[in-house]
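To: structure subgroup
Subject: Chain for Friday's discussion

All,

I'm putting the inputs and outputs inline so they're searchable in the archive.
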Amino acid sequence: RDILDMSNQQLKDLCQDTKIVTLMFTLNELYSISIAKTTKMLLDLTGCLEEGCLLVVVDSPGSYSTLALNGTKDAKKNNDEASKEGGVSQEVGDGSVEGEEEGERKVKKYPMKWLLDHTLLEVANAGGGDEERSGGEEGGGKQWEKVHSEDSRWCRLREELKYPIALEDMRMQVHVYRRL
């Protein structure tokens, strides 16, 4: 199943009694497909998860996790979709980094971490624009808290450990949120 096309009920059924949700090297890919659909999925997930549930996001760090908005056909489509869905648009902006110009539009680049924080800590905490998404609470209230964040962490195999095939050291970003 494609998580971006799941109904709210399908997501609820999938997440029933879940204590930890992990997004391992997938969130940036989901955002690159559609910022609007990914934002909606995260907001729907907010309504599906119980208090205390952890959301663990591990992804590539730095420039590998920056998404461009405006300037390209795909970026324009993502930006237009996000505007319709109440998600991130060019005007949201604190986290954007001005990029090169393409045609008449300036490219704005948003770090995946900023998009994630914006969705969970600002949009979801403000009620997400949907009573069902915000757990049915009047006025929304705070839905998530960030409990851990590392923008760049190395994962290295210790010298004394051996593995049958060669393994590479890697860098990653790690973000952990708790559902309130």
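Points worth raising on Friday:
The two ends are 28 Å apart (CA to CA).
Strands lie at 20-24, 54-59, 66-69, 97-102, 105-111, 144-155, 170-179.

D.
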